[in-house]
Task: structure prediction
Amino acid sequence: MSHSQDQNRTIFTIECEDIVLREFQEDDLDDFHALTWEPHFHAYLTDWNVTREQREEWFLQYEIPDNQRFLEAVTQGSDIGELRLRLGIILKATGQFIGVCGTGIKYELPAPNREILYGISSGHRNKGYTTQAAQGLIKYLFEHTNVTKLIAIAEVSNHSSNKVIQKCGFVFQNDVVIDNCTYHYYRLSAN
Result:
């Protein structure tokens, strides 16, 4: 975890082996929008593939400010409550924005229901980057926030996502149905 200066502004990052998790920057908008329209991405996160205009509004009016509120709460030692954090997955070798990893409340499930979520571009799948990202965020949450339990869900047919969740140490609980889709539901507790 580090903060680097960029135009008099601190940028939050979490260092991983091959990737860096970094808070969204305004110039990530086009890369993020393109990512959400990749077929494998929006097959599983259907409500994420919106028009560029809608994505820009969400990105600038909600996602970036939400990240800042989350990080401010952590810096002040406050309870993160229901605040969300979404970070870009940046490939160290190229500086390319290749995915997203974040945390928020999954309201459809009973508390504690803070989840880990992620998505990666098709050209960077099956290289371990998503697992590194999820593990980096999990470690950060357990070490720097009041979070002691996390959940993760993945559609039963999404084998890659289920594999990432299992590699991160989540324990399968049961299957749940949300919006007519069946998901494997997992939990993880801080050590």
The domain at 2-189 is CATH 3.40.630.30 (Aminopeptidase). The chain has a mean pLDDT of 92. The helical segments are 29-36, 39-44, 52-75, 129-144, 159-167.
